Amino acid sequence: MQAVLKDSGLKVTHQRCKLLEFINQVDEQHLTVENIYQGINAQGENIGLTSVYRMMSDFEQAGLVTRRLLESEKTIYELSNKPRHDHLICLTCGKVIDFVDPLIELRLSLAAEHHGMSIHHHSLNMYGQCFECQKAHLNESIT
Ligand SMILES: [Zn+2]
Ligand SMILES: [Zn+2]
């Protein structure tokens, strides 16, 4: 972690190391600042919410994480070294699912080409209800 921080041009501090370590080890790869704050403090660290905000924005500027703005102005972070992908977002439980569709990628690049745009990045989010939440909803209406 220290080498990663050094390479990105950030000063190596204990808190930054812990934070970066935490983001790399968690299974859930789409994290809000609150998720990160709660998770890291549950591991026995003592890092304030504002510090987490500040460090995540440092990480973003250094290119270590990517910030994505979802509907209702919810912000999530994910590691920048993940391959390009799009998102399915559950409006009920907030789950974020990654997917990749080569056909969508192709259509998008054709559309950009058609309009003479050179593309830096794209963001495609679909909003709805995940499978589990649909099931839960069904059970509710039966009982
Ligand atoms: Zn859901
Ligand atoms: Zn993602």
UniProtKB/TrEMBL annotation:
Q: Which cofactor does it need?
A: Zn(2+); Mn(2+); Fe(2+)
Q: How is the cofactor bound here?
A: Binds 1 zinc ion per subunit. Binds 1 Mn(2+) or Fe(2+) ion per subunit.
Which amino acid positions bind Fe cation, per UniProt?
A: 86, 105, 122
Biological process, per Gene Ontology: negative regulation of DNA-templated transcription; negative regulation of siderophore biosynthetic process
How is this protein annotated for GO cellular component?
cytosol
Keywords (A to Z) from UniProt:
Cytoplasm, DNA-binding, Iron, Metal-binding, Repressor, Transcription, Transcription regulation, Zinc
Q: Which InterPro entries has this protein been placed in? A: FUR, Fur_C, WH-like_DNA-bd_sf, WH_DNA-bd_sf
Q: What is its main location?
A: cytoplasm
- From the UniProt record, which GO molecular function terms apply? DNA-binding transcription factor activity; transcription cis-regulatory region binding; zinc ion binding
- Where does this one sit in the cell? Cytoplasm
Pfam families to which the protein is assigned, alphabetical: FUR
> Which residues of the sequence carry a binding annotation for Zn(2+)?
90, 93, 130, 133
Q: How does it assemble?
A: Homodimer.
Q: Which PANTHER family match?
A: FERRIC UPTAKE REGULATION PROTEIN, ZINC UPTAKE REGULATION PROTEIN
* Family classification: Belongs to the Fur family.
**What name does UniProt use for this protein?**
Ferric uptake regulation protein
Q: Which organism is it from?
A: Shewanella algicola
Q: What is the lineage of its organism?
A: Bacteria, Pseudomonadati, Pseudomonadota, Gammaproteobacteria, Alteromonadales
Annotated gene: fur
